[in-house]
Every structure is written in C-alpha cells, then in structure tokens.
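Need residues for this backbone.
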C-alpha cells in the first residue's frame, strides 16, 4: 500500500479540524451561545441559517455547526483516500454507494417525518449513521490491506456523524449538562483517533512487539486510566460552573467548588506518574522519551492554567485554553502509547549479524 501525499495532508487537516472544532464548541459554550440556534438541524423554525434577530449568539452557534460540516467533509476525503490506497476503485465505489444511498434515504426520511408533523432530525441521523456503520463493516470485510488505517478512518467518519446527533440532542434538550459533557468528551476522543491515524500512517504494517519494559507498559496504562479520570472530573466540574452555554441552563446539582478539588486529585496524581514515565524513558533511552516529554510539558502548562483560572474566577479565555490543552495532552499521550511498540521486522533487522568480507 502506497501512502499518497494527499492522504498525509488531509490526515493532518483532519486532526487540526478536530482540534479547531473543540475551540469553536468552547466558544459557543463560553459566550453563552449554546441556544443561539434553538432548533436542529435547522437554526430556527423555517430557516437553516441564523436570522438577524438572533444576533451574535446565532452566528457563533451556526459557525460551530458549519465547522462540523467541514470536519465531516475532511473525514470523508481521508476515508476515500485510504480506501483508494488500500483497495483501489473496488474499495472506493462501495463506500460511495453506501454514502449516496444513505444520504438519499436520510433526506427521504426527514421529508416524510416532517410532512407527518413529527421531527425528521432523529430518523435522518439514524439512517446516516446506519449507512456509515454498514459501509464500514462491508469495507473492512472486503479490504484486507491496512485494516488498521481503514478502521481508524471509519471510526472518525462514524464519530463525526454521531457527534452531529449528540450536538443536536444537546440543543433539543436545552443544553442538558450531561449531554454537553459527553459531546466534549467524544470530540476529545476524535482528536485522539485522528492522532492515532497519523501515527499508523507512518508505521510499517505487520506484527509489532514491545519496545519498553513490561513494568513501564503497565504503569503507562495505569496513567491512561488516571488521565481519563482527570478529564471526566474536569467535564463534571465545568458542567456545574458558570459556563454552561446559556444563563437559563439548569446544572447537574453537584457543588462545583467541591468538584474542582476532586478534579485536582487525579490531576496531581497524573503529574506524578508522568514524571516517573519521563524520567524512566530518558534513563533507559526508551523510544517514548520524546512524546512522553511533550505530554509532561503540556500537563505542566495545563495544571498552571487550571490553577490560574480557578484563582481568577474562571475567565472564559482561560477556560477555553484549558479545554484545548486537555485535547492536545490526550493526543500526545496516545502517540506515547503507540511508541511503546515497534515492528517485529525492524527489530529482526537490527539483530541480524553483519557479515564482513
């Protein structure tokens, strides 16, 4: 399988777009524009775009929706380029059939349900997501080459579709804090998946073996769990703070000040674990040392911003930076995890005896 320059470029654009949409989603929430468009998939009843009466909040919310469309287009291009590289036309054409068929049926479902006086948004979304899942299953069964890349590309495509549904659900439920929190968490996961795609794009296919001591691998996975807990408590804390997306939104009922302290416990534990990992990586000259160092540096900045925002009464700009840093830190850690293994063939080549004349 030959990786084209176009695939590399669009893979990077996909990662960047997933990071940017966290920023635009954060702007929606931090400016109180979560209900700037109070309908979905339309902005207002009878209008796809914001009207003049909605003001700046409508523009901010609609801008984030537009960014979702851009993310989906880039994800589709990455998927088609990966399919073309792995299986040529025989892999691309079925995917296009599933895509076109899904769009046609989804539009039909939307029109039919709307004409009947019901909401067509949910059936439209279900049909589109089902088409993506069916296309993914067919593609992975029929295309045996580089299933690692194809699986990741399909996950991003399905994830973007699901994200649109979750985002619409958040609007239709009046910005339910649990749905909004899940929306952010799933966005962060897509950043991690696109980062994993970039790593696998540069990695030779085939079996892989451990390139670090087993205790290091175990400690790294424990650190992954602590990282997930830190992010989860951070989402809960934000969901009960002042930046809920709209002044009228009811919080989850938890005490934000207590959650802020609870959020800091796994955060500081994560910092301690990261220091151990980075020290061991440099002492043993492990292949993870570059990326675990980047992760640790991002974590230091993240903690500093977290403390600063807490002491400054949560200014929106610092909260937004904190959200972006969480996604970038998680992405750096994903790359660190991938660096703990290497292709078996590369190791065998290093161990092969050198013959001299």
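Answer:
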């Amino acid at each position: 399988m030959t990786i084209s320059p176009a695939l590399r470029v669009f893979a990077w654009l996909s990662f960047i777009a997933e990071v940017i949409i966290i920023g635009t989603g954060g702007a929606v929430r931090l400016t109180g524009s979560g209900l700037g468009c109070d309908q979905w998939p339309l902005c207002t009843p009878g209008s796809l775009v914001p009207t003049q009466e909605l003001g700046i909040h409508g523009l901010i919310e609609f801008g984030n929706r537009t960014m979702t469309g851009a993310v989906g287009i880039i994800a589709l291009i990455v998927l088609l380029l990966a399919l073309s590289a792995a299986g040529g036309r025989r892999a691309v054409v079925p995917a296009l059939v599933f895509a076109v068929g899904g769009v046609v049926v989804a539009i039909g479902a939307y029109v039919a349900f709307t004409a009947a006086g019901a909401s067509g948004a949910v059936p439209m979304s279900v049909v589109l997501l089902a088409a993506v899942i069916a296309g993914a299953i067919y593609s992975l069964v029929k295309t045996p080459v580089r299933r690692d890349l194809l699986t990741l590309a399909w996950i991003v495509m399905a994830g973007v579709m699901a994200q649109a549904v979750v985002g619409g659900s958040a609007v239709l439920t009046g910005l339910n804090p649990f749905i909004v929190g899940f929306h952010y968490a799933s966005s962060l996961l897509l950043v991690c998946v696109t980062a994993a795609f970039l790593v696998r794009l540069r990695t030779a296919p085939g079996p892989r073996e451990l390139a670090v001591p087993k205790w290091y691998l175990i400690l790294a996975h424990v650190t992954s769990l602590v990282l997930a807990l830190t992010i989860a408590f951070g989402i809960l804390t934000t969901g009960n703070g002042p930046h809920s997306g709209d002044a009228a939104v009811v919080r989850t009922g938890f005490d934000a000040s207590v959650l802020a302290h609870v959020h800091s416990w796994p955060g500081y534990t994560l910092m301690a674990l990261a220091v151990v990992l980075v020290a061991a990586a440099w002492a043993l000259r492990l292949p993870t040392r570059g990326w675990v160092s980047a992760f640790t540096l991002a974590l230091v900045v993240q903690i500093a911003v977290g403390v600063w925002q807490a002491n400054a009464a949560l200014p929106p700009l610092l909260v937004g930076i904190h959200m972006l840093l969480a996604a970038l830190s998680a992405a750096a850690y994903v790359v660190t995890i991938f660096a703990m293994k290497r292709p078996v063939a590369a190791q065998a080549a290093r161990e092969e005896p050198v013959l001299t004349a």
